[in-house]
Specification:
This protein is of the alpha/beta class. Helix content is 38%, strand content 19%. The chain has helices at residues 3-10, 42-57, 72-83, 101-109, 135-150, 166-181, 200-213, 225-237, 250-253, 273-288, 333-337, and strands at 31-35, 61-65, 89-92, 113-117, 128-131, 154-160, 188-195, 217-222, 243-246, 268-270, 299-301, 307-309, 311-312, 318-321, 326-328.
Length: 340
């Protein structure tokens, strides 16, 4: 098992002591808000629970807030309410890369520190982004999975979340760039990018439409936990020869994962969700304490996760990268499903 994953699972409730002088003062009563994309996303809820646990263990108070819908307008309403409540810091998973800018700038102008994780608003809308895995690393893992599962040729499609989700679009762009830059992908044909809006039923409907429109489709890649679970069930229930990969939760994918005709998904990826929540909490605390500003090359200690350096993000802003994506397959899915 990944070393950082073990650390996050076993040590998630540890309070940082004198060995970590950066956080010797911890959160000291800081008031923090974590804003999700929408309620009911199992991935976010795991990360949010770790985030909340970390902030509270460090002496801060935390409110986890969900918008009424998975839209930028709904998140703007949430932010408007939070700005009036004197928070020290806000961390957000953005539903739109640009639409939140005015409201997040308003928050920063009011003295509220702004971090983001999972899905970043643009670089002017945040001080730092906590990235679950490097964009290119995710794109490479997914592209190689499509190549492998397809047998190196044929039609494939992407089932994404919303068309404005920054993380989804960044991974998709990375996949396209990788596919175009290497001859080994030349026999693969990307026929469509479909959007299920992170809704199970719409994701199911989009999967059905892809199979109807492209009867020779070999692989669907769903870089979204909601989309991959919906697609996995539809493909398996309908005994489709089309296979699946993407980003998913082991607990939601266990019955669909296997390297045989009976299972719809040979293997898929994700990352340490508890570690993402924990690292994001420490980054937010560091901002609130003015230990960091989000500037390039700043360093800080994220408890037992270790030391991290702020690097340049693909959009020209800054980010903190948790680590590499983890592969889940028939060999480890049962063990990992107990955790996630």
């Amino acid at each position: 098992m990944n070393k950082k994953l073990v650390s996050a699972v076993l040590c998630g409730t540890m309070i940082v002591g004198a060995a970590c002088p950066v956080f010797a003062g911890v959160a000291d009563g800081k008031k923090v808000a974590l804003v999700g994309k929408s309620a009911g996303n199992a991935f976010f809820e795991i990360a949010a629970a770790s985030y909340k646990e970390t902030v509270e263990a460090e002496g801060g108070t935390i409110d986890v807030v969900y918008p009424e819908a998975a839209t930028a307008d709904a998140q703007i309403k949430v932010l408007d309410n939070l700005i009036s409540q004197d928070y020290d810091a806000i961390c957000i998973s953005a539903n739109d890369v640009n639409a939140l800018q005015a409201k997040l700038e308003e928050a920063m102008d009011a003295g509220i520190k702004v971090a983001s994780f999972d899905s970043a608003p643009n670089s002017d809308s945040r001080q730092v982004f906590v990235n679950q895995a490097g964009t290119v690393a995710v794109g490479q893992a997914l592209m190689d999975a499509v190549l492998d599962i397809s047998g190196g040729e044929g039609q494939w499609a992407i089932l994404s979340a919303t068309s404005q989700a920054a993380n989804q679009n960044a991974w998709i762009d990375a996949m396209k760039s990788i596919m175009e830059s290497d001859e080994k992908y030349s026999k693969l044909e990307l026929v469509e990018v479909a959007y299920g809006d992170d809704e199970p039923q719409k994701s199911t409907d989009q999967t059905s439409a892809l199979l109807e429109n492209y009867p020779d489709l070999k692989v669907i890649c769903a870089p979204t936990t909601v989309g991959i679970a919906a697609a996995a069930k539809y493909l398996q229930d309908n005994e489709s020869t089309c296979k699946l990969t993407g980003l998913g939760l082991p607990s939601e994918m266990i019955e669909y994962t296997g390297a045989d005709d009976a299972h719809s998904c040979p293997y898929f990826y994700l990352w340490d969700m508890q570690g993402l929540g924990k690292l994001s909490a420490y980054a937010t605390i560091a901002l609130a304490n003015e230990e960091i500003t989000g500037a390039l090359d700043e360093t800080f200690t994220a408890g037992d996760l270790g030391d991290y350096t702020i690097t340049t993000a693909d959009d020209g802003g800054t980010e903190i990268v948790l680590g590499l994506p983890l592969q889940f397959n028939s060999d480890n899915i049962e063990e990992m499903a107990k955790l996630y």
